[in-house]
């Protein structure tokens, strides 16, 4: 599905006038096995037909996946009904979580976050921090690094595009 969507994107780019080599190569591969060449006068119509065909395939794949998911859910619920009805009914009672519910009140949200961030926190300075501090005491600090404009110019010169 992802490859088909990428192919649709590149075909649309070509249709809108993008003739970069990678796009042209992809368009040629999309029409491989057919008698369509890019120099034909009706290439735009063929492109539109190919894009519509790919969109229909993606829609069919999506419907097939949806049917499979629904069938799998039904199968699992039937099996659960036969083995453990109590668990099935508990799973059916749980609300389906989605982000399409009503938006929370803005004042309540602001008050909630203010109460979280404004409350003082007393961190536990236990013995584990002393152990880490004693382990890090023997580490020598790194010398400071000064980057000059010449260093940057040299690095950019060596870098690829």
Helix content: 55-70%
- The span between the termini is 32 Å
Given helix and strand content, the structural type is mainly alpha
Q: What is the typical, i.e. mean, pLDDT?
A: 86
What letter string, H or E per element, gives the SSE order?
HHHHHHH
Q: Largest sheet, if any?
A: none
Q: What is the β-strand count?
A: 0
Number of helices: 7
**What spatial form do the alpha-carbon principal axes imply?**
flat
- Low-confidence parts lasting 5 or more residues at pLDDT below 50? none
Radius of gyration: 31 Å
Percent of sequence in beta strands: under 5%
Multimeric organization: single chain
Quick take:
The protein is an all-alpha fold.
Would you spell out the secondary-structure blueprint of this structure?
Elements: H1 2-15, H2 21-30, H3 43-83, H4 85-93, H5 106-118, H6 127-136, H7 149-158
Helix pairs in contact: 1-2, 1-3, 3-4
Description:
The chain is mainly α and 161 residues long. Helices cover 66% and strands 0% of the residues. It contains seven helices and no strands. It has helices spanning 2-15, 21-30, 43-83, 85-93, 106-118, 127-136, 149-158. It is flat and about 75 Å long. The two termini are 32 Å apart.
Write out key terms for the chains shown:
single chain; mainly alpha
């Amino acid at each position: 599905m992802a490859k088909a969507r990428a192919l649709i994107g590149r075909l649309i780019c070509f249709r809108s006038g993008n003739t970069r080599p990678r796009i042209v190569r992809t368009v040629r591969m999309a029409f491989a096995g057919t008698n369509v060449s890019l120099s034909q006068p009706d290439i735009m119509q063929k492109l539109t037909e190919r894009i519509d065909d790919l969109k229909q395939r993606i829609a069919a794949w999506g419907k097939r996946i949806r049917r499979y998911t629904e069938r799998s859910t039904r199968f699992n619920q039937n099996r659960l009904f036969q083995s453990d009805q109590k668990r099935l009914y508990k799973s059916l009672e749980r609300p389906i979580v989605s982000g399409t519910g009503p938006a929370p009140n803005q004042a309540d949200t602001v008050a909630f976050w203010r109460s979280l961030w404004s409350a003082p926190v007393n961190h536990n300075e236990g013995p584990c921090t002393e152990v880490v501090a004693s382990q890090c005491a023997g580490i020598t600090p790194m010398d400071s690094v000064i980057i000059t404009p010449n260093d940057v110019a040299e690095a950019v010169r060596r870098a690829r595009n």
